[in-house]
Specification:
The chain is mostly helical. The protein has three helices and two strands. The radius of gyration is 20 Å and the shape is rod-shaped. The relative contact order is 0.17. The mean pLDDT is about 90. It comes from Levilactobacillus fujinensis.
């Protein structure tokens, strides 16, 4: 892969990681919301205006956590791919390329 192709792939990866970081907030919020609702309600738990039994609410919260785990796994794999791309770069980097690598490293 040429130097320019690696930089292009790294730009796309940084853009994707930025989007995934924002997207991660949704399942994180859902998990916290579910835990709080289960913890502070009785046998009937209301999640998003729908009443569940406590057991069903725990299951729904577990599904939220599973979604959260999947997004975390995607981000982890993208970080590994970025590290592999950076290891392919050799020679002197321009200032924008060095800034791109710094942007990538902030997603750790």
């Amino acid at each position: 892969m040429s130097h320019q192709e690696v930089i292009h792939q790294l730009k796309q990866l940084v853009r994707r990681l930025r989007w995934l970081s924002f997207l991660q907030l949704i399942p994180d919020t859902l998990v916290i919301y579910g835990i709080l609702q289960v913890a502070f309600n009785g046998q009937l738990v209301t999640l998003f205006s729908v009443t569940f039994t406590r057991q069903q609410a725990v299951l729904v919260t577990a599904l939220f956590a599973l979604i959260d785990l999947c997004v975390t796994g995607i981000r982890y794999n993208d970080r590994l791919a970025g590290k592999r791309l950076i290891s392919q770069l050799s020679g002197r980097l321009t200032t924008p390329e060095a800034e791109l690598i710094k942007q990538f490293e902030r997603f750790k």
